[in-house]
Request: fold
Amino acid sequence: MLELREVWKKYGRFEAVKGLSLDVHRGEIFGFLGPNGAGKTTTIRMVAGVLRPTSGRVLVGGDDLASEPERAKARVGYIPDRPYLYDKLSGGEFLRFVAGLWGREGREVEERIDRLLELFHLTPWKDELIESYSHGMRQKLLI
Reply:
């Protein structure tokens, strides 16, 4: 499902990630642990396609992020530490906006929005501006 092959990320002379190789198979749960500056966030950003490795390969579901970025990124969900949201939209409006970016609209989208808001206990805030959401609520909205 996820393969990293000799992945390096350099910033000038600084080596943030040094020749990392790993495999995560379907159904496995994998976490990154280590001290500050160990390359955890940099690696996650490369897997999400936010950063490009200096060298090496990242494959998601067999799709190479370098040569098939759209296919690979379609399999990855990524929520940054400090996500940008449109604070002047309501939660429901934001989800409709994102659905529209993916070319989705109509009744099916509205039903899915309602199901997801209920799943994450955000239904009471559907019509409230995102600026009033807590940090945790904002992250739930992005999932």
Residues 78 and 124 are 25 Å apart (CA to CA). The chain is about 30% helix and 20% strand. The chain has a mean pLDDT of 94. The chain has two domains: 2-73, 91-142.
